Amino acid sequence: MTDTDTDADARVAELALRLDAAQTACADTPSIEGEGPLDVDTAYAVQDELVRLRTARGERIVGVKLGFTSKAKMAQMGVSDVIVGRLTDAMAVPDGGATDLARYIHPKVEPEVAYRLGADVDLDDPEADIVAAVDAIAPALEIIDSRYRDFRFTYADVVADNTSASGFAVGEWVPVRAAADLAVTLRVGDERVDGSTAAILGDPEQALHALLDMCRRRRIPLKAGYVVLAGAATAALPLGEAEARCTVDGLGSVSLKGVRQ
Ligand code: 0L1
Ligand code: MG
Q1: Is 229 left (phi over 0), alpha (psi -120 to 50) or beta?
Q2: 132-183 confidence digits (pLDDT tens)
Q3: Which of 67, 93, 168, 180 could form a disulfide with 203 if both were Cys (CB 3.0 to 4.6 A apart)?
Q4: What's the confidence (pLDDT) of residue 209?
Q5: Topology of domain 3-259, per CATH?
């Protein structure tokens, strides 16, 4: 191992500790790229280390999520690639349940479609069929809570920050069905946003293909039982003490509520 490798490993470890501390203390941190360049490979290495810190504390990886799946978000970030992050059991909120707002910095919710993997997907099998591996679909809510100040980040920043993953709730699983262009409504208290699953790469099924491609490139395992959050169908809304509800036409609805204890 060269001195350069050692320096790179030390930087990854230091950045992961910084993001982990921001999450556990609910104290935001400035953009990493605001201080100097961060390439995407290093950003995924930071994410890996961040997730390792969480699993070392006893959390279990229960799924994966995609972000930047809408044309609007890609255009806003000036990128053409999705991002992938990891979900842990500590992020799960039961459907209809409550989540303590003290756990977050500035949480927002977004309406999503979730898929469940019924079988492992072999990343090294060029013929692997991720769509065939899916055994159920459900409406979902994702709580995103960037660890960066004012949600200001670059593409590499947000990759390092595990794609802002903070919480999620999944509605009732139903047998897999086509989910292109289903009407979606997100209500949070008196606020409402309407959209369509078509905002998720044109069809959430496309998100599964994009996920497999990213997981192959980043060596992120796809295991039986994993929840896959395919991406947001509308813009996110701030999460407060009011109920947040996502309704996806033909799939049903899912809700959660922020509470202050
Ligand atoms: O769709 C998403 O899950 C967004 C991921 C990160 C971007 C953000 O925090 O707004
Ligand atoms: Mg999302």
Answers
A1: beta
A2: 999 999 999 999 999 999 999 999 999 999 999 999 999 999 999 999 999 9
A3: 180
A4: 97
A5: Fumarylacetoacetate hydrolase; domain 2 (3.90.850)
Q: How many CB atoms lie within 10 A of CB 82?
A: 22
Mutation choice for ligand 1 from 164, 168, 227, 237, CB with most ligand atoms inside 8 A: 164
Name every protein residue with a CB atom under 6 angstroms from any ligand 1 atom.
Answer: 65, 67, 142, 144, 146, 158, 163-164, 231-232
What's the pTM? 0.96
SS3 108: strand
Q: State the DSSP code for 156.
A: H
For residue 236, the ligand 1 atom closest to its alpha carbon is: 10
Name which of 233, 229, 237 is nearest 190 in CA terms.
Answer: 237
Burial (CB count <10 Å: 0-12, 13-18, 19+), residue 27: exposed
Identify the CA nearest to 95 among candidates 151, 152, 140. Answer: 140
